[in-house]
Amino acid sequence: MEFKEVVGNRRSIRYFQPWRPVEKEKIYIMLEAARRASRAVNAPFYRIVVMEREELTLEQRNGLRTPTTTTDLDLAPLYMFWFIDPTAPNRGPRTLKQLVDVGALNASHGWSHAYVDEVVFPLVLEPLMKNDLVAAMLAACEAGFAMTQAMLAGVEEGLGVCLHAFQPEAVKDVLKAPDYLIPIWVLLVGYPAEDPLTGGQRPREPLAETCFWGSFDNPIESDPKVVEYLREKKMIQAEAPAPWRMQEVAALSRMFGLPE
């Protein structure tokens, strides 16, 4: 599957095959994809705890539930709990020097070990670490890059994925998370019980509502030729709902004993 089609095929899957476990190899593929995401100062801003559903008791699962995270927890066979580490920039002096040593940060752009120690750390990283809100926002963005790559890798492997909220204190207690880590999302993973394409792509606003050229008074309109090319590559697909989607949802609800 080409990258564009993987992007086009990604959906938030909410009906999983609860009886079908996810192979360890596919879990490792997702984790390795996350590890290779772009990241500031080449430092790891996230931690992931992987658990199979049956490793949690029903009482523990109930403690995780929120108004938007309910039945999904009972259907997904695999959970990936994501935490952010706002202290990651502390590693910057070491990890940036690694990039200098391998030729990723170069003297042509002013980089050296001394520049890291004398300029970057005291003027950029140290002030960042003193602002808890900014440090947490940066960590959340960096973790988001890794989550996206993990999700797309899972989709390419034929898995369904969906990010969910959860009760953070319950997770920290169950997983014995260190206090400095902040829980953000649980990525539910498994084989879809529903059509993997869920009857079409979710509605999206026009490109011009979110993208601009040069200034906010110059919106970027979609290019019809590019749109047609992306349709051919299956990155842009038919929008939901397909004519049969509601019947599928009703059938799934009956199969799992859920309200219709």
Describe the structure in brief.
The protein is of the alpha+beta class and about 260 residues long. It has one domain: NADH Oxidase, CATH 3.40.109.10. Helix content is about 45%, strand content about 10%.
Topology:
Elements: H1 3-9, H2 24-35, E1 46-52, H3 58-64, H4 72-75, E2 78-84, H5 92-101, H6 113-129, H7 132-156, E3 160-164, H8 168-175, E4 182-190, H9 224-232, H10 245-256
Antiparallel strand pairs: 1-2, 2-4, 3-4
Helix pairs in contact: 2-7, 5-6
CATH architecture: 3-Layer(aba) Sandwich
Q: Tally of extended strands?
A: 4
**First-residue to last-residue Cα separation:** 35 Å
Helix fraction, binned, reads 40-55%
CATH superfamily: NADH Oxidase
Sum up the overall morphology in one term: globular
Low-confidence stretches: none
Main sheet record: 4 strands, antiparallel
Overall pLDDT metric? 97
Rg over CA atoms, rounded to whole Å, is 21 Å
The sequence of SSEs as H and E is HHEHHEHHHEHEHH
The top-level CATH class is Alpha Beta
Spatial ordering of strands, largest sheet? 1-2-4-3
Q: What name is given to the CATH topology? A: NADH Oxidase
Q: Please give the count of helices.
A: 10
**What structural class should be given to the helix and strand makeup?**
alpha+beta
